[in-house]
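User: Okay, second chain of the day. Same drill as before: sequence in, structure tokens out.
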Amino acid sequence: MRPLTEGEIKLLFEKLSKYIGENIRLLIDRPDGNYVFRLHRDRVYYVKEKTVKLASNVARKHLISLGTCFGKFSKSGKFRLHITALDYLAPYAKYKVWVKPSSEQSFLYGHHLVKSGLGRITENTPQYQGVIVCSMNDTPLGFGVAAKTTQQCRHADPLAIVCFHQADIGEYLRSENELT
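Assistant: Same drill. Structure tokens below.
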């Protein structure tokens, strides 16, 4: 487990800023202690600084994971956010999309969100902006990218895609199914 390089930090923060903007500093300097990002086997972990010091006694080959996995770097060098980061990013999200109960299951199966399934959207959401997808009772369901601005969504066709699917909490079940 090692600290991230400057290039890795830049990629990570660019991805996080698409979803939470300038609130990244709130993830690091928290009232319950300082948190850091560490890299282990191409995965980025969000962990308390005190825990990192304790884990330094464990050999690298014996360490499986530490803290919460926020995502991984692909072979091409891009950073992909994992669904495990959702609970940490949702409270700080700048833009959110709420899904009608009739479309929740479709989104959780990995499909894009269409206008007919859109319950609400944060005012002044720009096109291609990262959004947190929530149910109507404010339960975070996943990540997405706004396909249209808030104004375009109001006048869109009911079958037009308004949010591109990125990740959802249903991935746990789908990936478990692939392993068996």
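The helical segments are 6-20, 24-28, 49-55, 86-89, 101-108, 150-154, 171-179.

User: Thanks, on to the next one.
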